Amino acid sequence: MSSRALPVRVVPPGMFGLGRGRRLIERDLLVARRVWWVPLSGIAEPVFYLLSIGIGIGKLVGRIPGPHHTTIVYATYVAPALLAASAMNGAVYESTFNVYFKLKYAKIFDAVLSTPLEAVDVARGEIAYALLRGTFYAAIFVAMMAALGDLVSVWAVLALPAAMLISFAFSAVGMAATTYMRGWTDFDLVQLVLLPLFLFSTTFYPLSTYPRWLQLAVECTPLFHGVSLVRALTLGQVGPAAAGHAAYLVVMGVIGVVVASRRVRVLLLE
Amino acid sequence: MPGEPLIYARGLTKTFGSLRAVDAVDFSVTRGEAFGFLGPNGAGKSSTMRMIAAVSPRSGGDLRVLGLDPDRDGPTIRGRLGVVPQEDNLDLELTVRENLYVYGRYFDIPRRELRARIERLLDFAQLSERADERVEPLSGGMKRRLTIARSLVNEPDLLLLDEPTTGLDPQARHALWDRLYRLKAEGVTLVLTTHYMDEAEQLCDRLVVMEGGRIAAEGSPRALIGRYCTREVVELRFGPGESERMAAKLTGLGGAGVSERIEVLPDRLLVYTDEGDAAVAAVEALRLEPVSVLVRRGTLEDVFLRLTGRHLVD
C-alpha cells in the first residue's frame, strides 16, 4: 500500500483551498498511474507543431522583429503560443471527455456525493485535476523551449504559472460545458471551438495582420489572452496589458467553477 | 443520545414537478433496528432513501437523521452513513482494494487506519483473494459484497441499502443476507428497501409498506400478516375458466366461519383462513374436486399484494 499512496503525496493538502475536492485528485492520480502513457499523445501534438512550423516555416520566414529592437527566429515567436495551446488542450481533454465519462457512465460522482463531499468539491477536484494535466503538458513544453533557446527573457520563469492559469480557465469552463453535454456527438462542438481558437489566437502571426473587425473578435476569445500573456513573458514585453490578459483568464475560471458546481448539484442532487 | 430515533420523519414530502413521489410520510427508526421499506416500483422508496442519505433535499415536512437536519448538516450526516445504492457504482477503473481505499479517503480516514480496515472488510466481503484485481470482471454477487464492504469503510452508525439483492442469484442472495445478519448482530442499524418479501421477512424487525408515495401499513412482519392476512392460505386450482363458478359455490365457507376471505385469480382461488385443514375439509365436503390443493402459511407477500394490488407497475 505504501507505493499506492505515493502519487497522493505530491498534492499538498489545502491546495488552492480545494477542501475535500483534493480527495478526487487522489483518485484520479491513482487511475492515471495505470495509464501513464495517455498524456504523451497530448504532448506530441504541440511538439510536432513546434518542430514542423517553427523550424520548417521558420526557415522561409527568417528572422523577425523581436523585443527592444532585436530580431528573433520565428520558432521563438510561435513557441509561447504553442505552449498556451498545449495548456489549453490538456485541460480541455481532461475536463470534457474524461469528466463526461465519469459523470454519465462510470457514475463516479454519484458515489462520491454519498460521502461527505459536496457538488462544489466535485467541481473543484475535477477542475484541479484537469489543471494538473494541462500543467504537466505545459511543463514539458517549457523545458523543450528552454532547450531550444526560445526563452529570451527572465520573465519566462512566469511562463509556467501563466500556462497554469490558462489550464485553470479552460478546465473550469470545459467542465461547466460538459455538464450540458447530451451525448458524445456534442463533443464535436468541442473540436469546433478548439481548432479556430488554436489557429486564430495570434498563434502564428500578430494581431495586426487582421482587419479591425476581426481583431476585435479575436480579442474577445480566451486563448488570445493566454497566448498574449505567455508571449509577453517569454519575450520579455511585459506591460499593463499582461495584467489584463491574466484578469480575463481568472474571471473565466471563476465563472467556470461556479457554473460547474451548480450544474453538478442540479444533475446529481435533485 | 439514547432514546432519540436515528431517523425521524414527519410529513416528509418529495415532489418532482407535479409528481408527489413521497407524499407526507411519517416514520422513525431507532438504534439497532432493521427497518424496511416495501413497495412496488415507483412507490417512493428510493426517493425516501435519497432524502435520508442527504443527497436529495426534501420538498416539505420534517426530517432528522442522526439528530441532524440533512439540508444543513449534509456532509456531517453522510460522514456517518453507509450507503448501498440500487445500482452498483463501484469505480471500475480501480482494483477491489483501491475502491475501498479511495472511498475511505473521501471520509478523510487516515491512511494507516484505513489500511487496517480494508483488510478486515476484504475478509468480511470474502474478497481477500481478489483484492488486487480490477472490479469490472467480478460477478454480480462479488460486486454487491464489495459495495457493502465499501459502505462500511467509515464504520457507519446507520446503513442504507436500496434493494440490496435485486438481480442476484440465490446463492449470492443468501451469502449477502448472511453478511447483513452479522452486521445486525453487531448492532448496526439497517434501513433497506426491497420488493422481495422473503428478504423483508428475513431481515426486517419492522417495516412500512409504501404505495403511491404514501405509507399503507406499518409493523413487524408477523404483526402485518396478523392484521392483513390470515394464518394460512389454501390455494385451489380448478380447470381453465372455472375459477369464477367455483368461487360462487365457496361463498358458504365464510358464513361457516372457515374462511375470512376468498380471492379469485385467473388460474386459482385463494382461501384465506386460520385453519387450512378445516377449509380443505369444507371444500371436499362440497365435492368440488379441485385439480390441486395447497395449504401454506400466510406471508408478507399476501399482505403486500392485498395492500398494493395485483396490477402491474411499470
What does this structure look like?
The complex is a heterodimer of chains A (270) and B (314). By secondary structure, chain A is mainly alpha-helical. Chain A has one domain. Chain A is 73% helix and 2% strand. Chain A is built from eleven helices and two strands. In chain A, strands 1-2 form a two-stranded antiparallel ribbon. Helices cover 37% and strands 25% of the residues of chain B. Chain B is built from twelve helices and 13 strands.
Write the layout of secondary structure elements.
The complex is a heterodimer of chains A (270) and B (314).
Chain A: H1 2-9, H2 22-34, H3 38-61, E1 63-65, E2 71-73, H4 74-105, H5 108-112, H6 119-148, H7 159-178, H8 187-200, H9 212-220, H10 222-235, H11 240-268
Helix pairs in contact in A: 1-2, 2-6, 3-4, 3-6, 4-6, 4-7, 4-8, 4-10, 6-7, 6-11, 7-10, 7-11, 10-11
Chain B: E1 7-16, E2 19-29, E3 34-38, H1 45-52, E4 60-65, H2 70-79, E5 81-84, H3 96-106, H4 111-124, H5 140-151, E6 158-162, H6 170-185, E7 189-194, H7 197-203, E8 206-211, E9 214-219, H8 221-228, E10 232-237, H9 243-250, H10 252-255, E11 261-264, E12 269-273, H11 276-285, E13 292-297, H12 300-308
Parallel strand pairs in B: 3-7, 3-8, 5-6, 6-7
Antiparallel strand pairs in B: 1-2, 1-4, 8-9, 10-12, 10-13, 11-12
Helix pairs in contact in B: 3-4, 5-6, 8-12
Using brief descriptors, characterize the structure shown.
heterodimer, A: 270 residues, mainly alpha, two-stranded antiparallel ribbon, 11 helices, 2 strands, 2% strand, elongated, disordered N terminus, B: 314 residues, alpha/beta, Rossmann fold, Alpha-Beta Plaits, 2 domains, six-stranded mixed sheet, four-stranded antiparallel sheet, 25% strand
What would you call the quaternary organization?
A: heterodimer
Structural class of chain A: mainly alpha
Mean pLDDT of chain A: 89
Mind telling me the CATH superfamily name of the largest domain in chain B?
A: P-loop containing nucleotide triphosphate hydrolases
Please give the order of strands in the largest beta sheet of chain A.
1-2
The top level CATH class name of the largest domain in chain B: Alpha Beta
Class inferred from helices and paired strands of chain B: alpha/beta
Give the count of helical stretches of chain B.
12
Structural domain tally of chain B: 2
The arrangement of helices and strands of chain B along the chain is EEEHEHEHHHEHEHEEHEHHEEHEH
